[in-house]
Amino acid sequence: xxxxxxxxxxGRPKLVEENDRRNSIVVAAHQVLVEYGFAAATTERVAARAxxxxxxxxxxxxxxxxxxAAVIREHRHLMLDLPRPEEENIPLVDALGKIxxxxxxxxxxxxxxxxxxxxxxxxxxxxxxxxxxxDNGILRSREDLMEWLAIQARKGLVVIEDETVCAGMLMDxxxxxxxxxxxxxxxxxxxxxxxxxxxxxxxxxxxxxxxL
Length: 212
Description:
212 residues, mainly alpha, Arc Repressor Mutant, subunit A, 2 domains, 10 helices, elongated
């Protein structure tokens, strides 16, 4: 019987190593971007934080813009939990609470606040970053929310004249409150904020209710 050498697994350790290196770089880039901002977040700083060479970064990311996009992609789940399960059957105000992840734990809340601040700050200073994120489908928050609203409208649960406007209103309601001008240091403050966001959602839903 002829011996057969199976070569399929030879590249796997290298692939695992590359994925680990990529993850380390993205984690380090996130820390550096939050701390220094896009302009001062040099590849030297990212490389030092990730304990890799600059060459190791450029083997995986073409430029700093691509690295920024990878950080946003890794954390975009903190912004919106969409799409929702097809079988979900809960009050719309509860669905919006889940979509905007109002019950996220404190650690996740801090991470969300940091990534939202990063996106808002850097998009204002470098509009090309925002264009890159949208053009490459990395940020689809508004579009995903528009699709969810369209589904609710088809179900007859809401009457939506302009999905773009309504999605923008909901994002302003939630993200405007989730990015306070001062840091909320106590649990009661954070709990009060969630109550206020939920009340705003209720006001919005009364405005689009087909029963009014």
